[in-house]
Amino acid sequence: MQPKKLSAYLYEYKFPYLFAILSIVVSVSLDLTSPQLTKRIIDEVIVGGKTYQLKYLLAGILGIGIGRCIFQYVKEYTFDATGIKITAKMRRHLFDHIQSLSADFFDRTNTGELMARIKDDIDRIGDGITFVGMLMIEVIVHTSIVLFCMYRLDARLALIPTAAMFAAGLTAIVMERKLDSVYESISEETAALNTIAEENLAGVRTVKAFAREKFEIGKFLSHNKKYYDLNMRQSKIFVAYYPYLSLISKLLPLIILLLGGRLVMEGGLSLGALGAFVEYSMNIVWPMEMLGWLTNSFSSAVASNRKLNKIYAEKPSIIEKECPISPEHIHGKIEFSHVSFSKSDEGASVPYEILHDISFTVEKGCTIGIMGATGAGKSSIVHLLERFYDATQGSILVDGIDVKDMSLKQLRSNISLVTQDVFLFSDTIMENVKLGKRGQLDASAVRHASRKAQASDFIENMEKQYDTVIGERGVGLSGGQKQRISIARALAKKNPILVLDDSTSALDMETEQMIQDTLRTLDHTTKIIIAHRISSVMHADEIIVLENGSIHERGTHASLMAQKGLYYETYAAQYQGGENHAR
What we know:
Number of helices: 23
CATH superfamily of the domain at 6-312: ABC transporter type 1, transmembrane domain
CATH architecture of the domain at 6-312: Up-down Bundle
């Protein structure tokens, strides 16, 4: 779905908005008819003595009040209901757009910033197209009708409120321009505050483990001070200009009364017309008083809309072909042919190479083990296979089809991935295991997969077993428990390709061995096992050892041990008397 501009949303709901604006016009027109009745009461009843008209004029005022209440309600409800629908759509479309972006966008964008855009900025825009927008339209309609009525009564006196409105509008424009840049900075600082709060709350155990509470509080307070300063700056601008608007609104009725009274004494204006004019001048006061607040809120909405447009300007770097190849079944053969991968950090002028000339083939149902030091590029192979990124050179094939020619949904839905950094959602264990195939997996499949992943024992010892709700990111579970649930999630799907990215690092040797035994029974599943432990890969059909992004050694466990190279050294470091064990 193409991201829509704010104007497109407004156009989509043009008829409800037109109806609401019509209600405003009727409501304001009724409201401003009241001074005309006041004029007749003064001129015809009080001065002219036509007392029999009083009951009709008072009934007219009552009718105006009732009609105004009805149309005010219709206006308020229509604006609010339409605005809520638009903001709900905007939030959904923004979330959909963010979900469509590629992994490189999330590499350079903080979670807190995205949270600020999805929640705070759309809320501000929602205010702009509901309450604030409604009041701005009402101010324009109200002012236009009041000035029209004033000019009909006396053009000379009407020049005074016209000049006052011009001065108030000029003041509001100057204030809006000064507030505009402040709101940009407030929006940025909101994102920074959200990021720091989100990181610290998510990693509170790490903060406490390293006794970093004081440092983290200081960092938060530093940004909180910036946020405070920016809001104080906004307040000072508002306070500096608002008194001018207030002064204009307070002086206007007084000047009208003085000059109008002189015209009455000179016979140039009736007493009733002056009464109506003073009432109109009081009516035009509130739009002037509202200008400051409306300008403030409108500037905030405009700044938020610009932030959203920056996100909408982002395009996914991983693009599907218009007509992707969609094989009926994925069997699981994987080929990397002379694959190289480079990546640029934000602000870096030259990309750095992560993988260089990687080639290997894994036949359907076979297993490849990948080892290497931290930063050697092991996980990048998985990222390229799942097409989170595209290879800089070379090709990656699944069943002989280039992954760039396949749909992302088909490619990724046929790969079960288990990572070292397990992410579990705040939901039941049952729903976490079903993730991705909720409609296709039943409770028995979940229990079977949990037994295979050696997770059933601790799950079934819980009070609610598989219906136990685990905390955010699996809080309350040990690292090994989270990894076993993640492995159960992967096994339950029975996908043709299974990728284990250092996924047993938190398990004891005995549990890991039982899981390895399970993996060896998956004859029709192609397995990629990335690990630091020799025990995780030693039974693989082929093992490759990466160093600095290139394949340094490759072969079976026995052949690599015979080479007495890097693999052998790793084995010797992990097992005392490595040479004897090798035999």
